[in-house]
Amino acid sequence: MPRHRHQRRGLGRTASRWITLCLLGFAPASNAQQSWTRQAPLPTSRSLNGVHFLTPTHGFVVGQNRHLLETQDGGATWTTRVAGPYGTDPFYTVYFSDPLHGFVAGNNSDGLRTIDGGQTWQPMTGLVAGSWREFDFVSPLRGFAGANGACAYTSDGGLTWDFRSVWPNAPVTYGLDFRDEDVGLVAGFVSATRETGLFRTSDGGRTWSNVLNENTNDVVFLDAETVLATVVLQRMIYRSSDAGLTWSPLAGPFEADGPLGALSAVGANLVFGISVDGDIWRSDDAGASWLKSWDGIGDLPYSWSLMFSDEQHGWATGPHGLIVKTTNGFTWEVVTNGVGMDVHDIQMHDDSYGLAVAKNGYVLRTTNGGERWELQKLAVTGQVFLRDESFNAVDILDQNFAVAAGPGGTVFKTHNGGQSWASIGFPLLSNDLLIHDVAFITPREGWVVGQRTSPPRDRGVYHTTDGGLSWELAFVNGALFVEIQFADLQSGWIQSAGKLQRRTVDGGQSWHNVLIPDHPLHGNPIVSAMSYADASTGWVVGWFGYIARTTDGGLTWTLQTFPDPQFKAFDVHAMSVNEVRVVGLDQQNLGTLLHSTDGGQTWTRQLVGSGFEVPSHLTARPSGRVWGAGFRGLILSNRQTCYADCDVNGTLDIFDFLCFQNSFVLGEPYACDCDPDPVCDIFDFLCFQNAFVAGCP
Known about the structure:
Layout: E1 19-22, E2 25-28, E3 32-40, E4 48-53, E5 59-63, E6 67-71, E7 79-82, E8 91-96, E9 102-106, E10 111-114, E11 122-123, E12 132-137, E13 143-147, E14 150-154, E15 162-166, E16 172-178, E17 184-190, E18 195-201, E19 209-212, E20 216-221, E21 227-231, E22 236-240, E23 248-251, E24 262-266, E25 270-274, E26 280-283, E27 291-294, E28 305-308, E29 314-317, E30 323-326, E31 333-334, E32 343-348, E33 354-358, E34 362-366, E35 374-377, E36 393-396, E37 402-406, E38 410-414, E39 422-423, E40 433-440, E41 446-452, E42 461-464, E43 472-473, E44 481-486, E45 492-496, E46 500-504, E47 512-515, E48 527-532, E49 538-542, E50 547-550, E51 558-559, E52 568-574, E53 580-585, E54 590-596, E55 604-610, E56 615-620, E57 626-630, E58 635-642, H1 654-666, H2 669-672, H3 682-694
Antiparallel strand pairs: 1-2, 3-58, 4-5, 5-6, 6-7, 8-9, 9-10, 10-11, 12-13, 13-14, 14-15, 16-17, 17-18, 18-19, 20-21, 21-22, 22-23, 24-25, 25-26, 26-27, 28-29, 29-30, 30-31, 32-33, 33-34, 34-35, 36-37, 37-38, 38-39, 40-41, 41-42, 42-43, 44-45, 45-46, 46-47, 48-49, 49-50, 50-51, 52-53, 53-54, ...
């Protein structure tokens, strides 16, 4: 039987708490209370540019917005060492010349240096001007840095740096490897001569000569004389047997997913390569033959980073915070929890199993209430230029059957709880069908709703009775439809982005128009979402504080009042005829969850994020568990926790203070705002301190 279905629509872990003011400052009314935990994406939503591991378990990654992250346990948990706000320049590379000396660099001479294995980092003030993308050291203290048209050298472990060559005569660096202090190779191009390919120096980077005039991404020494390079346009691996003086083709041509992005050598014979989509390849014969060992989950060409600490342990980083690893050199697993792409829908079937769908074909699956969100990437035609295969909606029918749908007529279904998927949309559905929502009442019968992006635009609702083997136009109507829901086998509704709602009481055999009320100030409403608790009671929400309720299945409607008339509602979820939740942005553009238990007469408010870190979609269960998902892949969930246990390890210690401090520095309201103002300020530190002293029950 059909079930009540949720409807579509932001490194902290706790929501703001209502507190009481005491003589010593702010203190929580109860130290064990409902909080919001960030489930994904972890460790970050930022795209990553570099990775270096000192041991199989201890390593660092860097990326957008000056992010430097460290793990001590092989990626199970991560600590943010450095983090800039959105809009700041990235870090491009992280490199260790030995277990103690490490280096990080980015734009405008922005660099960091450690001499204690990463325990502490200091600004690398001696780094000369430039945007630095690669490091390579030939001893713990002597090494080179490659930039966007420059090469620099240090003899004191990065304390001071000297230009060896500069733009326009120095190569713009894509990949860099030095055999010793004199001989080195750079993949890139030289502006002065407009030459592209591989450039060789025999005087420590002072002068360069073009030794391979082919577009290359990376180069790596296997031994003193043997070198491999990736030749992009020919899709070939080239080899040199004389330290880079002469070159010849070795392997390929490969398909677009070939090992032509970056290379990582582990000894004289074992080499790994990665494509610009994140596909990982292995060669056991010094690059002569290759075997793909990982089908990448990248969604666009990107400069993935690849690094091995030994023959078995390797790591790769890419866009949207993606991290993958191997512990045997052959098979790979996703380390990332979730992905930093906008989540367009989320649905929990029960407190354990749920699915979320995102841009560019990403599907997230959990079987433990969101503690872990497994990542998949689905594709109908693959990464075809200008074809959008994102997902806008997901509908779970039972433990086994679910459907996901989106632009381009894209529809997928699963019969095993999301472990595998089959395409049932395009080309049966038109490539110009922009699907906004999907609903199935049995594994064979379902609907997709949206709008055609080219004429005739009045064909946006399609129906299947054979599980997607065929589709038929349900009716002709030019409205932009954004939601569809069935409360049972007979009662269903389709909501437009405006006043029009279509209603069926015979399982979709016939549909009838109903109109929801005008906005009292703005006229025709801007509708975001619809949710029915049963065949009679439902809500429609939209922008500018719009909310309307029906108790007769949509025939008549009553306008209700939100606490904030400027509230921009993104999603609504009706649990019963009296309990309803709405998520959106308040007039300060703070992510806010509104909750009513009396049919919308009164509302309570919770802060659930700000800026880019806000949920735009809701799902909830009768147990009281609520999940929110939205921008940059954010997934949050509520639960009863101890506020002072910031790192959620069950113990109150100094690390909880460090955790809270990091959230405070990053300005994450649902993490650092202990009091309800909602501003992260000194009073939040007092609040947290009092909670820590009070302890956990």
